[in-house]
Each structure stands twice: as C-alpha cells, then as structure tokens.
Amino acid sequence: MTVPELLHSAKTVVVVGLSDNPDRPSFGVAKRLQTKGFTIIPVNPRLKEWEGLKSYPYVSSIPEDVPIDIIDVFRKSEATPDVVRDVLKRRAKPLAIWLQAGIMNPESRKLAEDAGILYIEDDCLGVEARILPTVA
Fold this sequence. Notes:
alpha/beta; 5-stranded parallel sheet
C-alpha cells in the first residue's frame, strides 16, 4: 500500500502523545487531520480527554471493537519500540504505524514489519494529508 492509498482509505487515526497544548505539533496535526475528515483517538496517559474526545492511556486500552487505521506517534525515538509492542497487543492491527518527522527507530520498524503493518517514519502525517480535500 502506498501513502496516498493509505490516506484515501484510512478513517481513524490514533495520535500517541497527543497534547492539549495548542502550541505543540501533535495538537496542530490532529486538528488538521480532523479537517480532512479523520476520526481522532487521543492517546496520552496524562489526559482524560482532548477537545471533548476521550483520551486513552495506551493504544492497548482502546476497546477492541474500535477500528484503527493509522497509529500516528509523537514520542521520542527511543520510546517507539514500546509503543509498537503496545499496538501489537491488540488483536485487530492497524493498517500503518506512522512516526512523525525526526522520529526513527530500526527496532520499531522490524516489530511493525514482522507483524505485517505498514511502517512509515520521519514524515509528518499532517503534511502528507494535504493531498486530501478539506471537509466542511
């Protein structure tokens, strides 16, 4: 699956490390993704909610019946293997794990690819989503 195919087929994005601070990149990207029609699921153990949406402490704490297409990760590179291992605890796997610009980790790549999950690193999902139309 290519990035454009992924963006056109995905509906739900889990944002790991989503901040409630409007000055943080995770906040801005999540808001941009909402304007493109994506459903956002916040993941941050320090937040109860984000912009009125329930926040989960971990990806594995999101109910199994909630479909997830993309896991968008705003965490330090060294923390990403634990994020990927947490994602793999779910029976229903996402289409992709996406590490934001500046975030790379070979162990995370191997874990995701061994599980058959598309892995993208060092790229901004918010920037890539510019190819999609904005929804009213």
